Amino acid sequence: MNPEEFRLFYNQTIHPELMRLDKQRLRMLRLILFSAALWLVVVVMVTALSEFLFAAMVSLPFMFYLAMVGARVRRFKADFKPRVVKLVLDFIDDGPLFGDLKYHAKRMIPIDKFMRSRLFITRPAVYEGEDYIEGRIGDVEFELCELKVQEFSRVRQRLDSVFRGVFLRAKFHYPLKGSVLLVPRARLPYLSETVKAYVRNGGENMDGFIKNAKFREAYITYGSRNTKVTDLLTEELMGFILTYGKRHDSISLSILGDHCYVALWNEKDILEPRLFQSNVSFELVREFYNDIYSAMYVVMALDRSH
After folding, report:
1. Alpha-helix residue ranges (DSSP H) falling in 14-169
2. Distance CA 103, CA 80 (A)
């Protein structure tokens, strides 16, 4: 989609909503500052009072008041992202290829579907997700969400990150032309078991068929025997993946029959509201839009290739 169209949509639709949300944030900030001042007064009074019962009578209502303030802050944070995301999806599904996109703030792709991607082999110790989106791109059904995946370290007493970012699963109307595993070379040490498992199941290194030298430097490609990887990894798609890597992070991809799985790494919390500074930011919204649309773009490119 044209970036200028998104900028115009942001100015007309998203920016006014961010301004309304920022007014709520400022009201809460004033409430928090007032609460802090009131807390100091209560501390002084309780310290000065000698009778425990009277001190408790003064403190308990204030504690209840603080709980109410905390609930308002949590509600603001919980409401902020869904309100902005729904506007972003309204922009995306206006495109001719997209069906109605549905959003669920607290849902995620089930772990069994995540494991079926074969992008990650070890069943994780921590699997957390949010911001689930489902819909259609032409005849292709898809679902995506943000995930945080961790496993127990083999050498230290800690949890190691397996994946953090946007994960997409797509189901095509017809099987794609073979099986493909695409791994960023920078992440190969962490995904070595993934590659070994893929090779054990008949996968072969396909780098010799990739003519794009820059792509070969950044990614290692495996495919099943007789797979024409260049039919799936078109120049258009490889160029897009390289461009994404320059702006953000890397992409992993697996194609298995009529299913495609896309993992876009992003270590940052995307579109999470800030309390002590303004959230009225085009860059903040554009980053979320870019990650969501990039995952969908990979699906559209693959759909055009078969």
Report:
1. 15-48, 52-92, 111-116
2. 14
**Beta strand residue intervals within the chain, DSSP E:** 102-104, 126-137, 140-152, 159-171, 180-184, 203-205, 219-224, 251-256, 259-265
Quote the mean pLDDT of the chain. Answer: 87
What's the domain count of the chain? 2
> Whole-prediction pTM value?
0.87
Neighbouring C-beta atoms of residue 118, cutoff 10 Å: 16
Nearest alpha carbon to residue 288 among 268, 263, 262, 260? 268
The answer to whether residues 70 and 107 belong to one domain is no
Tens of pLDDT, residue by residue over 74-103, are 888 888 989 999 999 999 988 778 888 999
Range of the domain at 48: 3-92
Residue pair 130/105 in contact (Cβ under 8 Å)? The answer is yes
